[in-house]
Amino acid sequence: NAKPACHVVIQRAFLGDTVLSLPLVRNLRQRFPEDRIAYLCRKGLGEIVRAEFPVDLVFEISKDSARDDLL
Q1: How many CA atoms lie within 13 A of 2 on its CB side?
Q2: Are 13 and 42 in contact (CB under 8 A)?
Q3: Which distant-in-sequence residues (6+ apart) come within 8 Å of 40 by Cβ?
Q4: Number of Cβ within a 10 Å radius of residue 53
Q5: How many CB atoms within 10 Å of residue 39?
Q6: Can you give the C-alpha Rg of the chain in angstroms?
Q7: How many CA atoms lie within 13 A of 51 on its CB side?
Q8: Strand 57-61 vs strand 6-11: parallel, antiparallel, or unpaired?
Q9: What per-residue confidence (pLDDT) applies to 3?
Q10: pLDDT tens sequence across 27-71
């Protein structure tokens, strides 16, 4: 038996692009029900992601500092 993994979905764009990623997240959850799913999104979208997406962790970053924060 393999240990559960953690999948990270990175979506730094606006609300519409975030909503379009919902099928991907749902498919990940269906395919890997025991794994953790983390979602990295633009600041201000985390509440929507937490309410509508089957994720375990949500990280919000500001668009302006995203490159500096990740490097």
Answers
A1: 7
A2: yes
A3: 8, 9, 10, 11, 12, 59, 60, 61
A4: 21
A5: 24
A6: 12
A7: 6
A8: unpaired
A9: 84
A10: 999 999 999 999 999 999 999 999 999 999 999 998 665 455 554
